[in-house]
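Slide 14.
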Amino acid sequence: MLPDPTDTSTSWKAELAPGRLITSLTAGLIAGVLTITMGTAFSALIFSGPLSGFVSQGISLILFGACIIGALVALTSSYAGTVARPHEIPAAILALIASIIAGSMGSAPGADVFITVVTTVIVTSVATGLFFLCLGYLKAGNLIRFIPYPVIGGFVAGSGWLLITGAFRVMTEKTLTLPNLLYLAQSEVLLKWLPGVFLALVLFVILRWRNHYLVMPAWLLASLGLFYLVLLLTNTPLSEVRSQGWLIGPFQEGVFQHPFAVSSSAHTDWGLILGQSGRLGTILIVSCISLLINASGLEIVVRDEIDLNQELRSVGFGNLLSGLGGGIVGFHSLSLSALGYTMGAKSRLVGLFSAALCGSILLFGSALLSYFPRPVMGSILLFLGFSFLYEWLYETWFKLPKTDCLLIIVILVVIGVFGFLEGVGVGLLVAALIFVIKYSHVSVIKHALSGVNYHSNVDRAPAERHALSKKGEGLYILKLQGFVFFGTAHNLHEQVRQRARDEALTPLGFVVLDFRLVNGVDSSAVNSFAKMRRHAEAQGYVLLLTQLSPDLLTQFMKGGFRFEEDEHFRVFPDLDHGVEWCEDEMLGEAGTPARQTEGLERHLGTAFLCPADVGRFMAYLERREVPEGYYLMAQGDPPHSLYFLESGQVTVQLHNEFGQTVRLRTMGAGTVVGELGLYLKIPSTASVITEKPSTFYRLTAEALQQMEQREPEIASAFHRFMVSRLGERLVDTNQSLKALMD
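Slide 15: predicted structure.
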């Protein structure tokens, strides 16, 4: 069922008020006249050459489509003042297809050629309508915007060239090509196309100087008046002008033939239509892009939000119904939609009046259209072609990178020399190649760190930290990001190789690749990681992969990557545990056993000048031995104690709002936990649990208060000790932050 968008800004009663009605009628009539004029030009463009005898029927088809799509979009668009009409880009491509079909059918009867072309138009419009509907109902309107902008520009510029060459065919029955230049330069032929070029340039210059909604209607009236004034002054009979091909008529008298009457498929050459499937597919894509660009532009002009998915559904239904009657693809006209807004008529009546005028001409206006001069029709097509080329060749040169501008030129040249479909293919291929080259220069390394400025969440004793600071440069940590494909993976491999060859640095012992921020890996990139593993074996360092998601693991395994761990390869669930393993290995190599057990008295000796003071302080502590899994404190507990870990190991972990448990820190012998809660008097922000049987000393809040009252000099020494420990931790944190910000 057709969507019924709600327009709360106005009502039909308000729209029918006399003042608003007159404004809407004026804007609608102007839009209708321009739609009829362009529709007539499009018909002459498509049905030219061997099909020129069917221009009358072609106009009826196009005006039928203009009436249907104009009325449906006016009633269902999310913006009340939208005006839709048959569009020039699909018309230009259809003209190319029609000329190919006419040339391929050769000596076939003209009626059969015409029927085949009309059936092609029907197939194109219906397929476009269904395509728009699918995108609209799937809410996929934004997906089409992933097509590179220069490729869109190349398509539009190519369409501009097709309009220009088609304009010459409309005016002279010959296309603008190199072999036809001598013919077009003949004086009697020159007289047919030169006025059209002059009129097109006049309109182009005026609109660049003053872009007003009345310019084009005034230009159209002046052009028609000038043509017939010349006939009057030269006393040229109308019959002679018609016989020489200056007019598009004569059309048969009376009402136009009903569109469905000419859409019979009895003599349709379906093989030729299927052979044009590539170009028909191009119409779908380019039309969708143009619709979304026009709708987005209208959004800016009217300063109102437009639902792109609703516009796709609205135009989809319009093309589906108009296509069944033989109408060509149509969608929003930015200029005609902005016309009503500029005149103060944000009304659905603007589009309805425009559609009604098209319907009236369809039923009763054959005699009027038969007096339309070919130079004026050609000038309209030339103007559109000039505008496309000016916008996408000249203006973009100052807005886009030069590589994008060159891509637009390449697509245009290929379209002009080889054809539209070839231009589309080359454009997409070159755009993909440029993207690969550019993206390969974007580093997937978010941060490059070492063991000097990045540490695991393990709070180690001073001796361990000193040993790690001496060997930390041998730990090379690369935090990766984004999508990794063969180009960026190769660059990553080269960076690791350069680090391994750098003799000015400590020999490489460990390379950690963290995949936490990687959202995908190309299958061909897996080969580069396999090369890195072989390089680690050859150079004698350990390669570690951390936080590989299930999808990444699957991709690696499909690429044939071996996950068997050995002395040169390890996998860890996250970066923290991977770096912890490396630190333990470095401590073992340095002869400093990890988690070394040291008496608390040794740690306190640096803060208490007199050994006797250490004993006096120890009197305030409670010593306990606890098993693995013992909670020293639970998240949310009120502040009550701090703990000195003499032996064993504890983990500080946080339970977040998603129900996940996150390790914040692991602490070994000689470390302190719970000091922030005790000093700040706040509940525990995390839980502290023993990972193995441990021995600790506990200082309660009451014992600390007694110490401060009874022996303030001991309490002062203790506070100095705590300040020193917190300062060391802060220095480590600052080093890590500085490394991440560089």
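Speaker note: Residues 712-741 form the longest helix (30 residues).
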